[in-house]
Design goal:
Structural class: mainly alpha
Transmembrane segments: 43-66
Keywords: Membrane, Transmembrane, Transmembrane helix
Organism: Nocardia pulmonis
Distance between the termini: 35 Å
Helix content: over 70%
Radius of gyration: 15 Å
Protein name: DUF1360 domain-containing protein
Number of strands: 0
Low-confidence stretches: none
Oligomer: single chain
């Protein structure tokens, strides 16, 4: 059961990362950030970078995954970093076109 929870969590991190960085439904938010903050803003960069966003998504959701899986809290940073790495690699292989 623990493995299933961790796999589901990693897939959820991947989906949330794509939602923030690439999906058409959140495109107006990304465009508004560019218009308001410019292309040089760190926040603008964050919402366009799957590698960057996946770190934040993984670390904010890891406590729930660790608790649901019944794992020790000290695994949290390790699992979050590993999930972020996997999601970043998946994002690199994923086509940008969402239509």
């Amino acid at each position: 059961m623990t493995v299933l929870i961790l796999i589901a969590w990693i897939l959820a991190v991947a989906r949330l990362t794509r939602l923030v960085t690439r999906d058409k439904i959140t495109e107006p938010i990304r465009a508004a950030l560019i218009q308001r903050l410019g292309t040089g803003s760190q926040l603008t960069y964050l919402v366009h970078c799957a590698w960057c966003t996946s770190v934040w998504v993984a670390f904010t959701t890891a406590p729930a995954a660790v608790a649901l899986a019944g794992l020790s809290w000290w695994l949290l940073p390790l699992l979050a970093l590993a999930a972020s790495q996997l999601v970043g690699m998946l994002a690199t292989a994923d086509p940008v076109d969402t239509d």
